[in-house]
Amino acid sequence: MKLPVARRLAFDGLRVVSGMCPAGRECFPLSFREELGLETEPVNGSISNPFAKILLVEDDERVRREVHKALDAQGFEVTCCGSVRDARIQLSSSHDLLVLDLGLPDGDGLDLCRSLRAAGQSVPILVLTARGRPEDRVGGLDVGADDYLVKPFFVPELIARIRSILRRTGQDPVPSAANCGALCVDSESRLATMAGQPLDLKPKEFELLLFLMRHPGRAWSREQLLDRVWGTSFDGGTRTVDLHVTRLRKRIEEDPGDPRYIRTVWGVGYRMTEDPEGSQA
Ligand code: CA
């Protein structure tokens, strides 16, 4: 699909040079991945499985926001901060992985990395930085980083690297499917089933259902759903969300007028139930 130039260049900090992209493809922020067929293999947020906890230390607000959103959409539990000082505070509680910028306002991420290793902390560290010289990469790995990714970067590559580290450290939270009652969504096969019967969903219907199932019990406003599922560059209004929910309900609900799975939260938006047999409104 061809996108307008303005949308292609929406996030310079996350845009990637073409040489880093899959052969013959341009690379875009995660928001565009489905439209472009650049879908990453998502980490499935199964309802019954804990998510990996990631601490993102990045002082560039735009990069932080977009990476946070991308990781959140993958089902990771993400905490963000923008300074060495705040990172040290956050690291007093356990995390499964640290994504670490180097140029921070109150210090150098390399020093943080070095001191964590000196203190015997083994939390995996992925350095995400604009410092791309070979000696920078070697230096980062030498002070204890587990991986090193240079900006601008391809968001799916960041996610793939995170998953790779988590697999190596035995913390990959990847189950292949999310279930809720008789409803099952498999992010790898991109198949949704109800009581074992495949559901015929359009791509955005699938994405919306997957997103809601990754966050059971949580209410989302229409604006939040637009932002998370359609992306910040989407031009349509919130009515789009309502239309997709209506279509999803027709496919997954026994009685779309009395939905058991995707509940309406009055004055807010929608929520995927944690208990489709329950009686909550
Ligand atoms: Ca920085």
The radius of gyration is 20 Å
- In CATH terms, what is the fold-level topology of the largest domain? Rossmann fold
- Enumerate how many helices there are, as a single number: 9
Q: CATH superfamily of the largest domain, please?
A: Response regulator
Oligomerization: single chain
Sequence stretches where pLDDT stays below 50 over 5 or more residues: 1-50
Q: How would you characterize the largest beta sheet?
A: 5 strands, parallel
- Kindly state the mean pLDDT as a whole number? 80
| Hetero ligands | calcium ion
Strands in their spatial order, largest beta sheet: 2-1-3-6-7
The CATH architecture name of the largest domain reads 3-Layer(aba) Sandwich
What top-tier CATH class of the largest domain fits best? Alpha Beta
State the share of residues found in helices, binned by percent: 25-40%
Distance between the termini: 40 Å
Shape: elongated
Q: Could you say which structural class the secondary elements and strand pairing correspond to? A: alpha/beta
